[in-house]
Design goal:
about 170 residues, 4 strands
Length: about 170
Amino acid sequence: MRPECTEGAGGGGLLVPMAWMYAEYIADELLRTGDLMPPTTLEYRAGRDALALTIFLSDSSVGGARVVARMEEWRSLTAYGTCWREWVCGRLDRLEAASFESGRETRDPDLELAGAAWRWLEETELLAPDLDAVGPVCDDPSPAGEAEGPQVWTPAWQLGLPLGHLAIHLF
């Protein structure tokens, strides 16, 4: 879906980032349907942005009944062990290069919003359980403050990606 102009067919008006807004809407609906966490949390935002990037950067456009048909593709793109981060960076780089080569005077607003979402996912760190921590198994309760085990700071995308993947499964 291309950005749409708000002023007549001649262009020159404000470009509306319809493709990004639609991808973000679908991601939000998937996460709300899954009811995994309150929409006011940073973790929810991370899941929505990771899922919206996946939807936006997928090859073909999304619309109506095609959303259900694309679920398997999104599920495989967000699966554990995939090179999702590299896939996102590669797609964004190609889109930015194509936008630059087109010679347009203004930047693609969809691409700007997708880039801003990616920067937030990369630069923001959230405190999360350390899934790589290996400790002795015992019957003693965890020390105070570690009821959920050890925690580490991790980039937001590393939390958002599995959350988005789970939301797709629950849909």
